[in-house]
Amino acid sequence: MRWTLALVAALALCAPAAAERTPVLRQVDVPHNYYWREMYVPQLTSGPSSLAWSPDGRALVYSMQGRLWRQEIGSREATQLTSGPGYDYQPDWSPSGETIVFSRYHDDAIELWTLDLASGEARELTRNHGVNLEARWSPDGGRIAFVSTYATGRFRIFIASMTGDFAPRQFSTERRSAVPRYYYSAWDHELSPSWSPDGRELIYVSNPEIGHGTGAIWRRAVAGGEPVLVRAEETSWQARPDW
User: Fold this and answer.
1) Measured between alpha carbons, how far is residue 52 from residues 48, 106, 139, 189, 240 in Å?
2) How many whole angstroms separate alpha carbon 58 and alpha carbon 111?
3) Contact 227, 218 (CB under 8 A)
4) Is the pTM of this model over 0.70?
């Protein structure tokens, strides 16, 4: 009985501290941060994750223990590509084979970086102190599509040219859903972009008028227009469309 009372008292003392704990990555504006934090942003791993093919299909780049690694198909050895502070994740190989774009968690933000494979030089691409994820090269290598909380605090797709000034533009206008949501923002989100082979469209996950789950699979022209439903779903961070 004494042990039970002591445990209750200890939990009571811990409750205010837990309630006042600062959430991880405050840049994300959603009612409950557990779901995206545990299922969408980079997670600590001891094994390979988030793989991407080289353009010639002879090698893979992947994240492991916070670094990027390259491994030739059929080889038992991997070469470490990145180092230093931060956690590197979600690489994507450029069509030219010369550059890798990836997300790096450092200083309470996730920014996009590029890695020049010839020189080994890593360069910061975004500097908005937001959460920037899932960068994907266009088939011609001239643009990337990525997900960012920039400006709104909500996950939205942006597109940016990789030649000249890096000036991302929002893929579509924001939309407020009429369906009440408990876990996610009242504003629709966009996740997991993938380019069409001709570079004219994106396929992605979004949740217009979906109350639960991360949403259905949609396609929309990069130049604009109405989105087209591809598959109706209420996925829970499980869908990752790839064209």
Assistant:
1) 11, 22, 14, 24, 13
2) 28
3) yes
4) yes
What span, in angstroms and rounded, lies between the C-alpha atoms of 125 and 222?
Answer: 21
Q: Is 4 helix (H, G, I), strand (E, B) or coil?
A: helix
Residue type, 111: E
Residues in a beta bridge with 221? 201
Residue whose pair of structure tokens reads 């890096």 in the numeric block: 166
**What is the four-CA torsion angle of 233, 239, 242, 243, rounded to 10 degrees?**
0
Question: Which residues are within 8 A (CB) of 214 and not within 5 positions of it... i.e. 6 or more apart?
Answer: 184, 189, 191, 205, 207, 234, 235, 236, 237, 239
Pairing, β 122-124 against β 132-137 = unpaired
The residues pairing with 215 across neighbouring beta strands, listed in sequence order, are 235
Superfamily of domain 25-235: TolB, C-terminal domain (2.120.10.30)
- What is the structure's pLDDT at 14? 38
* Residue range 43-63, pLDDT digits in tens: 777 788 899 999 999 999 999
The structure tokens 């450092």 sit at 106
Task: Write the CB contacts of 16 (distance below 8 Å, at least 6 apart in sequence).
Answer: none
pLDDT tens, residue by residue, 93-139 = 999 999 999 999 998 899 999 999 999 999 999 999 999 999 999 99
The CA distances from residue 130 to 136, 142, 241, 242, in Å, are 18, 23, 24, 25
